[in-house]
Design the sequence.
């Protein structure tokens, strides 16, 4: 296969799941200088939330991809007012540190990979104790760690933010790992502004909607059918849940559609530099994730699925998803060993 052909294949495969992993993978497969790959790998913020002696997958690797709702940057600083206006996502103190996007990317030793979306409102045991929505593990642990450190005398805002986020990452990894009964080998974290920067750097994305929709809370206002979304519209697209059949589950499918749209855009080699810039400003990777090494082991096919829920419930004043943990774990095993067939290749698939 030609270098250009390998380049296109890598973009199509990897970006359907974890866009950040494409930065080094595309460069390696396309034969770009090793120094460029090293620059990417060293330019991204690193986390030590996964301990060196933590349990590891025995067949392939599991990467937890976390998308945070925070409207703050990596240092806990507010985003510029003009950026907040373009995000259409409210004030900088809204959103907290919930992990509203949770995807377990399973990279097997051989065969297709699969990206499994974990619905954010699943009621599960949390690493910090008690039950809560799976998305809340990060924020609860972050607050608790910052309170502990303040009581011990730490006052520096950035130090508190960094330590709190590390505690949040540890708790989120441990919560998802225990819920799915799967080791987590690596993590990828991106906040709300990262989704915006991706779409902005790519000049927008193409999606298709089955029905026209409007939601003032997210800023979504779209006709039915195929359409091109700019960065602000793309963020509204992935944030909308009100007025959709299935609510949050429909939003999960939109997140998957967004990643697929990014993959299609990255078939154009000129789009790659924007992804590199985004990775450096909006992404956190675990310290043990070697992008260049991983790029050489990526499978030729990746597929999406969403882990099952048993319906809704009202617990502790909150609407949650009821889950059967054994069914969820059985589904993870099924997907990891026999992923579902890919969707028909008939253009941009439509979503709710």
Sequence:
């Amino acid at each position: 296969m030609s270098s250009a052909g390998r380049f296109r294949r890598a973009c199509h495969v990897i970006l359907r799941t974890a866009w950040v992993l494409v930065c080094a993978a595309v460069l390696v497969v396309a034969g770009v200088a090793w120094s460029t790959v090293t620059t990417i790998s060293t330019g991204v913020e690193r986390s030590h939330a996964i301990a060196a002696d933590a349990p590891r997958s025995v067949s392939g690797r599991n990467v937890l991809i976390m998308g945070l709702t925070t409207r703050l940057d990596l240092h806990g600083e507010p985003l510029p007012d003009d950026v907040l206006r373009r995000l259409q996502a409210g004030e900088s103190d809204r959103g907290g540190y919930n992990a509203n996007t949770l995807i377990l990317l399973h990279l097997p030793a051989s065969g297709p990979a699969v990206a499994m979306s974990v619905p954010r409102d699943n009621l599960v045991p949390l690493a910090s104790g008690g039950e809560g929505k799976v998305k809340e593990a990060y924020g609860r642990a972050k607050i608790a760690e910052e309170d502990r450190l303040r009581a011990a005398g730490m006052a520096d805002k950035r130090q508190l933010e960094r330590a709190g986020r590390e505690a949040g990452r540890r708790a989120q990894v441990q919560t998802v790992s225990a819920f799915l009964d799967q080791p987590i080998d690596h993590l990828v974290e991106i906040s709300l502004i990262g989704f915006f920067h991706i779409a902005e750097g790519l000049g927008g994305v193409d999606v298709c909607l089955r029905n026209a929709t409007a939601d003032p809370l997210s800023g979504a206002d779209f006709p039915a059918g195929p359409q091109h979304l700019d960065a602000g519209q793309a963020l509204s697209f992935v944030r909308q849940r009100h007025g959709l059949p299935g609510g949050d589950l429909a939003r999960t499918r939109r997140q998957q559609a967004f990643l697929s749209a990014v993959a299609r855009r990255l078939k154009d080699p000129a789009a790659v530099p924007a992804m590199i810039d985004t990775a450096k400003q909006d992404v956190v990777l675990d310290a043990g994730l070697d992008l260049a090494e991983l790029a050489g082991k990526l499978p030729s096919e990746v597929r999406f699925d969403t882990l099952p829920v048993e319906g809704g419930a009202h617990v502790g004043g909150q609407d949650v998803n009821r889950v059967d943990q054994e069914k969820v774990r059985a589904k993870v095993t099924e997907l990891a060993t026999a992923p579902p067939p890919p969707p028909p290749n008939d253009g941009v698939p439509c979503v709710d």
User: Anything to note?
Assistant: The chain is about 40% helix and 20% strand.
